[in-house]
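Throughout our pipeline, every protein is held as a single compact record rather than as scattered files. Such a record has a labelled line for the sequence and another for the backbone structure tokens. The remainder of this section carries one protein's record, kept here as part of the documentation:
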Amino acid sequence: MSASNPTDPTEPEETGEEAEEAGEPLDVRLLVPAAAGWLAAVLLIAHRPLVGVLTSAIAVTLALILVFVLVRALPLLHHVHRDHPSRPLRRSRNEPPTTGGTVRTQVGWAAVGVLVVVAGMGLAAGLQVEGLRAGPVTGLAAESASVGVRLKVDGDPSVRRSPGSRRPPYVVVKATIEEVRARGSVTRVRTPVFVIGSTQWQHVRFGQRVDANGRLEAVERGSDVAAMLSIRSAPRIVDQPPWWLRAAEKVRAGLRESVAGQPDDVRGLVPALVMGDESGLPADLTEDFQTTGLTHLSAVSGTNLTLLLAFVLPFARLIGVRARGLTAIGLMTVVVFVILARPQPSVLRAAAMGLIALAAMTSGGGRRRAVRSLSFAVIGLLLLDTSLARSAGFALSVLATAGIVLLGPGWRDALARWMPVWLADAISCPLAAQLACTPVVAWLSGEVSLVAVGANLLAGPAVGPATILGFTAAGVALLSSEAAHLVGWAAGWPARWIILIAREGADLPGAANAWPATAVGVAVLTLLCIALVFGLHRILARPIAMVLAVVLLAVVVLRPVGSIGWPPDDWLFVMCDVGQGDGLVLRAGDKAAVVVDTGPDPAAMDRCLRDLGVEYIPVLVLSHFHADHAGGLAGVLKDRRVDEIEVTPYFSPPAEYDRVVDLASHHGISLRTVTYQEKRVVGSLSWTTLWPARVPALPPPGTAATSTDEGSPENNASITMMVEVSGLRILLTGDLEPESQRAILATGADLRADVLKVPHHGSAQQDPAFIAATDARLALISAGRDNDYGHPAPRTLDLLSHQSTRTATTLTNGSLTITNPNNHLTLTTNQQALSR
């Protein structure tokens, strides 16, 4: 008699279907070839075509030899079975294998499957690499040649900015070169490239053909394009997209128009939610979606198609459509969705994964069929486009779908023992998908979200109505704009709920936690996720254990462990860890601070200010308009009162200056230009502006600023401040170059300071006399990890060391905090307190 109690709710009872699936080895046999093929594609896509062909030939040869051996072994097995009829040739599902020969045979046939898939991947990789190398484009790119081209636009243009760079905004878009003109000859080709152009390219349309002149540059091996094409001039339109793409654009425009009267967030989210149209999505909302694990809602993903099919097919069944009619309507819906969302690889991938997830959750025995479908989809998609093997989007789609179909049903059943099935489904799906994707997300972002499952659970009920109403608004817009506005207004309400969840979730102190994006860090996180996979089922099946787990998670989210003891209660000055840039905070009272520069990343700056409890900023100082000092402005303005923004009188680069002006105007904040030697007092703070005393002439409109003797004019026009707070003198220097450092020395200003913010992130360009004149006890440097500039420079660190100045950097210590208890200057980091 078994000692276990079959009625004990804490011991999940395995149903017949679950037992059947547990004993069925088909899932593994399909997943192993898919995984092997994926790995082969990752390795082969970065090599010459010959490597892929040789790999394919070797794999085919080994597969044929193995098949020959297995076929020769079959008569022997039948002979053994004839002599020993009691020994079955094949075992039942629930019976362990009785002969080593049977197991070896199964493993052998599985190996044949792996070899066949690897052979296919080798051939596909060789053909794809050869296709990219065919024609003159690759050779011209290796020589950085200037060419004239005719392009077919294969994607939607995206405006980008380079944090920490003086480069103005630029546009990137995928395209195919159909004609290349170089060295007096014209060649017809079909070569994919990545175009980098001026902002004049932001209005090109998917499917258009354009002429342009530019410079080709080589790309790394393994890329899905043959070259980069840098273009300074405007595109010359040759023809318009085909009629079906123009019709799709009309539908997309109708959707955008239907929500035109809504708030900015809603106006951007509804088109993104419905068709992956992210053109109007605010940057800060995109960051909140990333923090809360809701990014899949604002991009083309399987969720969009799954929801659309989940609405269309039951409706078709309701009006009497059956059998093949349902299949035809389903396929037609998929085709329409792909056209509206643009027939790009990401859309086709999303369509495939959405269909698989829908099959898993809506059909009996769906998990086995979904795993088979997922395995075939991975193999098929990689054979069609081998470069997907290195795509983060492909990896996230596959892992999320695998999590849903492999882990979701079991976790749903465990939860369903003590909660409604619909709620168990709502929890298990995002939990499984998030856990499966966590290592990859951490590798890409350096963060682990602890609110993603909860955010998806709360936002989930609103996704369906917003998506379906959005699709309806897009269709109605073709008939009546007034009716479309009504439907768009209705779609805006569930979208507002999703936005509220993203905004509030991202504001939680422990919403996102830093995680090392290194091989060791990701390996450790993967092991933790695997441990959860094996242990979570027991927790989910026990209500008390679940409640304790949720309470523990809530404590961590609301009061992160990493923030205990940091910042110290008596902090005076903080150099925030904002990556490659400056973000400085000076205490000006209870929950009030003066902020100097905002770093390149709004999310990082916002997180630092939240950790410090800053809600009111009487003065925000931007030392100059480079993106690594002003790019994070939106993060400072988020949910905080800012009275004024103080700026340098050198309004360059123009694009970044215009962006600051627009943001300030949008929030009703006045901009004020500093004056030389002015003195200001805010709360317990006071400071004197030591520079700029003179400002170089601005460049003519449309031209870039030219460098001066030793640095850019923007750097040399940086606001320099001598701050006094609680008995400390702190010298803030922006990105001053030696030219301006010597000019400040020539003014005779008293530069003696307790703390020096080292100019220009510790670059090698420093004036030794300027550094010596500060006589600082402590030098702080803000620089990003693995930055391309080599900051801080060893030469500068040696210079500070020779001055007997102690140095600390955000690069190694994270955010740096200064306190002065009993006139005892103290530096505190997240890890330790260092006293002087």
Remarks:
- Residues 1-26, 89-100, 832-836 have pLDDT under 50 and may be disordered.
- The chain is about 50% helix and 15% strand.
- The first strand starts at residue 146 and ends at 153.
- Residues 49-83 form the longest helix (35 residues).
